[in-house]
């Protein structure tokens, strides 16, 4: 029997580098302050802030930040919906000097029914 998660953010192991701590800290600050006012309408599971926290924790501030930015852009009207998890690993073509390639990196939604 596994224990229930202690929070809504990803609790897996991740390196606590300064960039990752900064990124996850900013997302956590958003969750504790503004999310109650402007959040609560995400069209995906996990929510965009949970996705951002996990993406930055797993892939670092630069790559996780781009994944988060493109995920939030898909959340608006006319965007996708459903289950959209953070990719476990990233393709080798996703480099720091080509951030536009991150548009399709995490875009594997499955509609929840």
TrEMBL record:
Primary location recorded for the protein, binned into one broad class: membrane
Any GO CC annotation of this UniProt entry: plasma membrane
InterPro entries referenced in this protein's UniProt entry, alphabetically: Membr_insert_effic_factor_YidD (IPR002696)
Subcellular location: Cell membrane
Protein origin, superkingdom: Bacteria
Keywords linked to the UniProt accession: Cell membrane, Membrane
Membrane topology: Peripheral membrane protein
Tagged with keyword Mitochondrion: no
Family to which the UniProt record says this protein belongs: Belongs to the UPF0161 family.
Protein purpose: Could be involved in insertion of integral membrane proteins into the membrane.
PANTHER family: MEMBRANE PROTEIN INSERTION EFFICIENCY FACTOR-RELATED
Protein name (Swiss-Prot/TrEMBL): Putative membrane protein insertion efficiency factor
Native source species: Hoeflea halophila
């Amino acid at each position: 029997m596994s224990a229930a998660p202690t929070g809504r953010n990803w609790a897996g192991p991740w390196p606590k580098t300064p960039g990752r701590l900064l990124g996850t800290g900013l997302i956590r600050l958003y969750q504790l302050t503004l999310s109650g006012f402007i959040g609560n309408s995400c069209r995906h599971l996990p929510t965009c802030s949970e996705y951002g926290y996990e993406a930055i924790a797993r892939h670092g501030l630069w790559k996780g930040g781009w994944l988060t930015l493109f995920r939030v852009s898909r959340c608006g009207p006319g965007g996708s919906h459903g289950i959209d998890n953070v990719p476990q690993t990233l393709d080798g073509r996703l480099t720091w000097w080509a951030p536009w390639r991150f548009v399709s990196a995490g875009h594997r939604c499955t509609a929840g029914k």
